[in-house]
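Data availability (excerpt). The following record was deposited with the supplementary files.
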Amino acid sequence: MTAEGDGVGVTLLDREGLIDAVILKHNRMLEKYNFEFEELDTRFSSCSREIDNIKKEHEEMLERIDVLKEKRQQLYHQAEIMLEKLIGTGMQQKDVDTMRDSIAKARSLSSENEEKTIVGSILSLLAEGDYSETRSSIRSKIEEAVASHEELTSISGRENTLTEDQKQHEDELNKAKPRHSWLEKRIQSHKEALMYWESLKNVEEEVITV
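Predicted structure:
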């Protein structure tokens, strides 16, 4: 038998010399492969955990997005319903109609900047005239609706980052998998071979051609 990578030719060894040489060879290979495998396995496990965490965060993010979308629509709807109460506070019907149209437009916009521009005009009309609890409540609901939109925009940016991070970790995993699998098989093979040769120590001594 030829020792792996040592360039030794066919040699006649006694049983003890053979077993010691082969056991030494397998132990060296195990040490080498185990070192690389443990290092790679740490990276492998880390990437897997990160992917799981990203998927969990993404799932929670989608749930939050649904909540914010519904909340935003409800707030605008509640503000719109309260507009009629402004007539009793001295506001003219045409201004109420203008705000109603503006709210309907604002709630349908996907652009945060455009929404803020329209909301600004609504708040300006609400600021005209004397203070009332109705005006304050409408203002509060509209401002909260805008805040919900701001959070939605922020989450969308984070969602893109998560997608990129997940792809990066998946690429690293896919790159590492072949080597990881190969090392795992080689380690197992050397362990089995080592067990075999160590078991021969209990066998009656004989001369073996290697």
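Summary of structural features: The helical segments are 15-82, 93-108, 112-127, 133-199.
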